[in-house]
Amino acid sequence: MDVSSQLEYRIDVSATIDSVRSDGFCFIEGLFDQATVAELNAEFQKVFEELPPGVSEGVHPPGRMATIDVQNNDPESLPVTRAIFQSSSIRSICEALLSSSSGINDKILMTHETKVTPITDVHFDSQRALKIMIYLLDTDPSNGVISFCKGSHVENTAYRNKFLSKGGHLLDLQNVASQIDLESSFLEALSGPAGSMVIFDTDCWHSGGCLEDDTKERRIIRSSSKFPNQPPLQPTRLSPLWFRRRFNLFLPEPPFDMPGRERTRGTARK
Ligand SMILES: O=C(O)CCC(=O)C(=O)O
Ligand SMILES: [Fe+2]
Question: Which of 13, 68, 146, 205 could staple 152 via S-S, CB 3.0–4.6 A?
């Protein structure tokens, strides 16, 4: 079965939308069949070996990361990856959750974790996005399973909105969970076979786990689409705030503090 048919038969679009809205994430275990998983792994390999046009490599301390700029990448070069993220099922889910049809899944990232360092802190992203991740290997707590705290996006979105409405800047958002947050949050680890997919609102507390030892690895293909109408993460170049941040001068105080929480300032780690 080709990928669009697998998506069409195995994803219930409206149930997926409801579950991301209420829980903050939706896990579809074993979505793709073995043949598709093999094709995705071949495309993953090709990206890192050949860095085709429209693909750039980024800094990723737990391993390697490549970003595919979908608009500038040869449509023939990564057909299965593109077919998934451009499928009508995935587009309908993203458009409904983002209330927007622009910029959806324009960037596709591939990450290959091989180092025994925590992949992330327990955090929510500084900029709110809808992300889709596909495991290319069987993934469990021994190789960087991703975990979520169900329903936590509601409070985190409320905190984000209050912080921004009081003049706070996204770079000052305290998005790394405190000890108190951790004690009151149950993190559900989404273990699953290669070909499983998770769709999530990054305002949910989430964390990327860790590799147990250096014989383990994790491979993920993911897309990210920003929720619309957000301020930019970095102040506009040469603006007064840009100068103040650059030279650490008269930085505006954040409007209020969340005790014990830290910041990633736009990255996945503090
Ligand atoms: O790689 C991971 O497991 C999590 C990454 C993450 O936090 C994110 O994509 O927002
Ligand atoms: Fe994140």
Answer: 205
